[in-house]
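We modelled the chain as a single entity of 185 amino acids. Its sequence is:
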Amino acid sequence: MIGYAEADLPAGPARQVAELEARVWPGSTPGHDPALHPRTMLLVDAVGTVIAALSLLYKPIPLADRTYRAAGLSSVVTLPELRGRGCGARLVAAARAELAADPAVDLALFSCDRPLAAFYEAAGFDVLPGTVLVGGTPEDPLATDEPGFDKVVLAAFFTDDPGRDRAAFTGVRVPLHPGNTDRLW
């Protein structure tokens, strides 16, 4: 695993990540809002080919009379021809371990398409039943329960009282509001 602040990602790997994302999500725009302090994690093979990538995004989230220091997984992608071989799973597990070791992070929180929930659960994240992330901005929100979405919200808590904090995030609408670039992470 290799990690970089997105702004420091060398040109070669940055190009490979952009090409991989465009291949998997045609029409996507590479990169994230710098205000979210994006960090790129890569799994590369022996010759330096990016075989899987993801981004970590960071933002404080006010909820339940507290402000949590949250990180989210975004743009998790694996070369299509290597899917099912554990590459993405290794990268997601490494991202969770990195976040758990970071004293500046209280929780990892993100949404995914419902069929992918088991993949993230295998890496140590838990589904938060009934939880909705509200992305976008307060003036132009985008929620994970919008018509046409089939999303679930997952989390891992790294606080002194993870049970209490899990309860605070379960079955509620979470004001994520990461902006208009990364409307949901």
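As a brief sanity check on the tokenised model: The helical segments are 11-24, 87-101, 117-122, 162-169. Residues 2-175 form a domain with the Aminopeptidase fold (CATH 3.40.630.30).
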